[in-house]
Every structure is written in structure tokens, then in C-alpha cells.
Amino acid sequence: MFGLKESIRPSADLRNHYSEISRQCRENKEAVIITVNGRGDLVSLSYEEYKRMKARIELLEILAEADEDVKHGRTATVEETFSDLRAYLKEE
Questions:
Q1: How far from 48 is each of 2, 6, 14, 36, CA to CA, in Å?
Q2: Over the stretch 22-32, which tens digit does the pLDDT of each residue have?
Q3: Are the C-beta atoms of 7 and 32 separated by less than 8 Å?
Q4: All domains in the chain, ordered by first residue
Q5: b/e string for 3-36 if b means 16 or more Cβ within 10 A?
Q6: Lowest-confidence range among 1-15, 40-54, 71-85?
Q7: How far is it, in rounded angstroms, from Cα 6 to Cα 27?
Q8: Nearest one of 1, 10, 59, 53 to 29, comparing CA atoms
Q9: In sequence order, what are the residues at sequence separation of 6 or more whose Cβ sits closer than 8 angstroms to the Cβ of residue 74?
Q10: Are strands 5-10 and 30-36 parallel, antiparallel or unpaired?
């Protein structure tokens, strides 16, 4: 399963120790939670981790839509699907 390590740092660290936080995110594949006045304000991730997380969310959204289609009977057989695809491709 997906488990992202997290650490918490005050907002002053973002200004004073940016390179350290950046390295922490990239090398440790860690999310750094930045706090303001002791409360969570934002999360810093490496760009690669952000892309992976975004891809997971997009896949989950597609799966949720497919689950809703099945629940509401919006399905077709493989034969129907390929027949529709062939007809569509012939039109173009």
C-alpha cells in the first residue's frame, strides 16, 4: 500500500533551510508539512512524488467512475464494444 513518510517543520525553516527541506523531500521521498503558528499550512513534496500521487488520484477517479457505471448498469459486452469501435474507425 501507499505510505508517504511525513515530517513537520515551521514556516521559518522553509525560508532559512530551503535546500535542506528540498533534499529531504527528494532523497527521502518524504512530505514536509509546513506549519504557521503551530498549525498545518502547506505540504512540500518532490516533483516526482507529486506526479506519482497525481497519477494515483487520476486512476482512482477512473475506477470510481467505472464502479458507478457497473452499479447503474451502464456496461456493454466486449463484442458490443469492439463492434462500436470498428464502426467508429470506419467513419473516420
A1: 15, 16, 19, 26
A2: 999 999 999 99
A3: yes
A4: 5-45 (3.40.1620), 48-91 (no CATH)
A5: eeeeeebeeeebeeeeeebeebbeeeebbbebbe
A6: 1-15
A7: 13
A8: 53
A9: 68
A10: parallel
Q: How many CB atoms lie within 10 A of CB 50?
A: 14
22 vs 14: CA distance, rounded Å: 9
pLDDT of 80 higher than 80 = yes
Res. 92: pLDDT tops 90: no
CA 58 to chain centre: 6
Q: Which of 9, 49, 10, 54 is nearest to 28 (CA)?
A: 49
- CA 62 vs CA 35, 47, 50: distances in Å: 33, 23, 18
pTM: 0.72
